[in-house]
Amino acid sequence: MWHSIRTELTLPLPQETVFDFFSRAENLEKITPTELGFHITTPKPIVMRQDLEIDYKIRLHGLALRWRTLIPVWDPSHEFVDEQVKGPFKTWIHRHTFKAIGPMETKMIDYVRYELPFTPFGDLAYPLIHRQVKRIFAHRNTMIPSLLGV
């Protein structure tokens, strides 16, 4: 069963500045809650581009997991998509969209569609997992403005 989450964050910065922050993969470590133990294992520096694969380690509920992401869409300043190739979800597709509202204002939209593993049993964990995913994105939206200096 597919699930989704959508968040928006408006920042008083040009679209290119906001996108540039996300074009640096190491910033993902800075905006992810520390209790997840998120760590990029792909050698740095990472140059973001279409068809790039990035490896991570993450800790969920005490379990150390490996996660591999593919970037199938890379449209600088406008959007990119990351898809889980290997990891804790059956499917994870995260679209990052950046829209200029004005010359000094950008709306950032995160839209994630995901499926839990072990259907139908995995769906029993949906309330817990969805709550955690929402909390992760709330944390991101708190961290991003301060890291961008706004």
UniProtKB/TrEMBL annotation:
Residue ranges annotated for the Coenzyme Q-binding protein COQ10 START domain, each copy included: 12-119
Domain of life: Bacteria
InterPro entries: COQ10_START, START-like_dom_sf
Family: Belongs to the ribosome association toxin RatA family.
Name of protein: Coenzyme Q-binding protein COQ10 START domain-containing protein
Species of provenance: Cerasicoccus arenae
